[in-house]
Amino acid sequence: MGRIPEETIEKIIQSNNIVDVISEFVPLKKTGHNYMGVCPFHNDKGPSLSVSMEKGVYHCFGCGASGNVITFIMKIRNLEYIDAVRYLADRVGITIYDEESVSNENSKEIKLKEKLYKINIDAARFFYSNLFRNKEPYNYLVNRKIDESIIKRFGLGYSLNEWDSLYSYLKKIGYEDELIFISGLVLKSKNNTYYDRFRNRIMFPVFDNKGRIIGFGGRVLDNSKPKYLNSPETPVFHKGTNLYGLNFAVKSGLPGYLIMVEGYMDLISLHQFGITNSVASLGTALTNDQAKLIKRYCKDVFICYDADAAGKAATLRGIEILEENALNVKIVSIPKGKDPDEFLKTFGRVEFDKLIQNSTGSIEYRILRAKDGKNLKDIHEKSQFVKEAATILSKLKNEIDIQIYVSHIYDQTGIDSQAILDEIKKIKRTTNNDKLNYKDNSRNPFEIEPGYKKAERNILRYLVSDIRLYDFIKNKITPNEFITESYKIASDEIFKSLEKGEIPSAQSILAKFENEEDIKDVANIFQNIQVNDNSYRFLDDYIKTIKKYNIELILNDLNIKIKRCEENNQIEESTALTQKLIGLTKQLKML
Predict the structure, then answer these.
(1) CATH class of segment(s) 451-586
(2) Model pLDDT, residue 205
(3) Closest Cα partner for 284 from 249, 248, 240?
(4) Which CATH architecture has domain 6-92?
(5) Peptide bond into 226 cis (omega under 30)
């Protein structure tokens, strides 16, 4: 989707009273001009969360969380920016149109998607009706102990064992060849005739998280190959960005975690036994996009894949993807030779719940897999296992956890605990050196805040706390001199408002930002700062800090250019740049 216009975002922010929204999650009590409550983002022992209805911002004095109504919903609901905006728009009945939707090309794309959703509904109805007219597929599901209520809930169906029954049906009810082909429901022969993609299969409609049918999965009734067949990629169906059953899981209510299974039948079986907080990865390896989708709804995931070699490999990859997205992962170990569907039907819900309760942590599971196939009586294989286990443990930060795992490895191998700890430390040193050599531009949460950034924030805080200070500031510094991009944009808006004699609007300014960190930074400038006789001296110091930094940037650039000129024997250019450098150096000393 294209960018949502700032005017729309501002309207959404203004229409969602921040006190009302936060009160839906946290009880708030009016204290002076603001409202106070217990912060939901850390273990708050007393009301540390301050909410300003007037400014439309919140700030926690305990953990430092700050922002507007959008960032609050992002954090509390685990949503991306665009989804938080949609959530708030839906809350107050505002329809969102993005900036691109006015273009003909985008309008065509939207209309095509709507047509695809509709043709998928008609195809699903066709498959569903076929199921009840044909004994073999219906009996197949009955024999798999699938209730009719589950068949109806998931819209399960059957594709006839005929060349073009679906194609003929869709043509009969008015669909054009081009749309039927784009939907992925049919294939085109060399003779340019169309035939059904799915034939003689149990059909599983695939829904997105909004409940729209986006594609299909089909399972054979016998042992022929391929066992499962999925819709191809279409404008509405992307396997790697959706999860089968997520819409049902969300609708049923999540107990704080999701169970991840491999296949359609596993998922259906879990629902059959009342385990509705489950999803399947559409027959593909878990993707980063799917992990992000999970993170919107919960923080804990139980991987419950098959116990075969492929299932174990998929589990290891799944752990990596989920943990990269800050999700807590546990592994449910199904006894060998069973999948979740078979286990439930053999042993029932109570025994499956025990598997969940006895699930394995991701570190322990990795160590178990490292041990697979190794003969620990063989010196080489034992050494290999310990090195692999040490690599796994080197990622842990908690020393007590490391000691516990090392003790287990000692019990299994007899290798001295200190030798294992030394190996872990060696791997950690190597890893840390690699990190130091790698120029990472991501923010370090422990880095010291630059002095200029603090100066920028406090200048803006003074301005919004007392607009009379604008006359003192406006001739000393301009928005273009601000270094932090978010503060540069905010200062430009604040200066414009004050020049017109208007009070800067926190909601209007915050509507210009989508990045959560930017919103947090800018929201902080709307925390009042006490203005007194010392404020003017402080402002002068802050302005000098920013100007000094800007001059230092220019001086650094000049030194590089002078060196380059000297290397190329460009004497005149070097002399001119040196004069400029001398002038700026004097200017810097005067500040």
Answers:
(1) mainly alpha
(2) 97
(3) 240
(4) Alpha-Beta Complex (3.90)
(5) yes
Backbone angles phi, psi at 280, to 5 degrees: -130, 150
Residue with tokens 């005929």: 162
**Whole-angstrom distance, CA of residue 46 vs CA of residue 39:** 8
The domain defined by 104-237 folds into DNA primase DNAg catalytic core, N-terminal domain (3.90.980)
**What is the DSSP secondary structure assignment for residue 334, as one 8-state letter?**
P
Do residues 56 and 13 lie in contact, with contact meaning Cβ atoms separated by under 8 Å?
yes
**The predicted structure's pLDDT at residue 446:** 43
- What order do you get walking across the sheet with 34-37 strand by strand? 29-31, 34-37, 49-52, 57-60, 66-67
Q: Which band of pLDDT confidence, cut at 50, 70 and 90, is reported for residue 527?
A: confident
Sheet-wide strand order for 213-220: 157-159, 201-207, 213-220, 228-230
Q: Please report which confidence band the pLDDT of residue 448 belongs to, taking 50, 70 and 90 as the band edges.
A: low
The structure tokens listed for 15 are 């229409």
**Using an 8 Å Cβ cutoff, are 294 and 249 in contact?**
no
Residue 30 in 3-state DSSP?
Answer: strand
DSSP-assigned states of every residue in 85-141: HHHHHHHHTPPP--GGGGSHHHHHHHHHHHHHHHHHHHHHHHHHHHHHH-HHHHHHH
Residue ranges per structural domain of the chain: 6-92, 104-237, 246-366, 373-437, 451-586
Task: With beta carbons less than 8 A apart as the criterion, state whether 536 and 528 touch.
Answer: no
Fill in the amino acid letter for 177: D
Nearby residues of 278 by Cβ (< 8 Å), 6 or more positions away: 245, 249, 258, 259, 260, 261, 267, 270, 271
Cβ atoms of 482 and 456 closer than 8 Å = yes
pLDDT range class, residue 443, cuts 50, 70, 90: very low
Bridge partners (DSSP) listed for residue 271: none
* DSSP count for the chain of H helices, then E strands: 26, 16
3-state DSSP assignment of residue 356: helix
- Provide mean pLDDT across the span 394-409: 88
Compute the average pLDDT of residues 155-164: 96
pTM, entire model: 0.62
Query: Residue 189: beta bridge partners?
Result: none
User: Which of helix, strand or coil describes residue 347?
Assistant: helix
d(CA 170, CA 194): 12
- CB count in 10 Å sphere of residue 276: 18
Residues in contact with 68: Cβ distance below 8 Å, sequence separation at least 6, in sequence order: 13, 18, 56, 57, 58, 506, 507, 510, 519, 523
Q: Could you check whether 6-92 and 104-237 share the same CATH topology?
A: no
Q: Are 68 and 13 in contact (CB under 8 A)?
A: yes
CATH C-level class of 246-366: alpha beta
